Amino acid sequence: MSTTEKESAVAGRAAAASRRKRGRKPAEPERFALLGVWVVLIVAFSVTIPDIFPTTANVSNMLASQVVLLIVSIGLLYPLRAGDYDLSVASTLNLSMVVVAVLNVQQEWNIWLAVLAAILAAVAVGVLNGLIVTVFEINPFIVTLGMGTVVQGLIYLLSDSATISGIDRSLSDAVLTQPFLAIPIGFFFALALCAVAWYVFDHTAFGQRLLFVGQSHDVARLNGVDVARLRWRALIISAGTAGLAGVVYAGTTASADPVSGASFLLPAFAAAFLGSTVLRIGRFNPWGTLIAVYFLVTGITGLQLLGAQQYVQQLFYGGALVVAVIAAKLVRTRGERKRRGQAAA
């Protein structure tokens, strides 16, 4: 082998080693930034109000209070991964809750049959959303906003615009009053849904294709991906999960009213977008969403225990959504620049 060939071989091996080294390099440290801020908040509130904030009762209350929000946020991740917004999730949650109450309390159905009917009603909303979005090729933002309004009208009709109390306590026992390790069992249901979403997103072809579709519908379609079917399935999963959240909410309150579900829409989007800045930057991911949900409730609870008024909750959720959307935009822009630079090199 000539000297020139040896030098070329050495250079090739060095380049390959450099590429492997870059591939092994850990991801950006900012993916742990929110975790660091969360720890700082916990320590600060524990030092400031040591008799209340770090107690078992308060921690258990914070974990339990966000179960419904965490469940609906996890369901929302599926269409978001595909590049679609589902603005009907809050109304779908409320529909599920009201269906449980109407069937169980007014029609005297068995509670578990009522639960099944409520989840099926939620899934039907997702089917209609997906049908209109994919068959008629209409923007999901508009479709789900309109569908959410239609569903809200149906809720008023079913409930006669009144709160329905007296839901069978078996549902409350299943999601709230049977704690494990001093934590309501509903939290572990939500944790299981996080694990399922993580497995689907990271270890199944469906999850990988969702990400591909979310990056570009046209490119995915040109590569043989059934974009319409994937988007439809994602909207159905989102609606079905919102229905499950409504069932848990009904069990938590043992009643149903026609308006309270609407309060989950902004927090769910805030958690999903803020979660995309954690662990897997630029990607909607379940563990990031879980961290975001409990980061937000930590800040809100701590400030309220210090005497802040109720408006702090809106400030936190609204501010988190704005900051998260800006951060996601900056991350995408930086990623595109990096890819262009690598392509040019």
Task: Compose a concise summary of this entry.
The protein has 345 residues and is mostly helical. It contains 15 helices and 2 strands.
Distance separating the two termini: 29 Å
Which residues sit in consecutive blocks of at least 5 with pLDDT less than 50? 3-19, 21-27
Quaternary organisation: single chain
Strand content: under 5%
The succession of helices and strands, N to C, reads HHHHHHHEHHHHHEHHH
What does this structure look like?
The protein is an all-alpha fold and 345 residues long. Helices cover 76% and strands 1% of the residues. It is built from 15 helices and 2 strands. The chain has helices at 3-24, 33-48, 56-65, 67-81, 89-106, 111-135, 140-159, 169-175, 185-203, 205-215, 217-222, 227-253, 265-275, 286-305, 311-344; strands at 164-165, 255-256. Strands 1-2 form a two-stranded antiparallel ribbon. α5 (89-106) packs antiparallel against α6, α5 (89-106) packs parallel to α7 and α9 crosses α10 (205-215). It is globular. The protein starts with a helix and ends with a helix. Mean pLDDT is 83; it is low at 3-19 and 21-27.
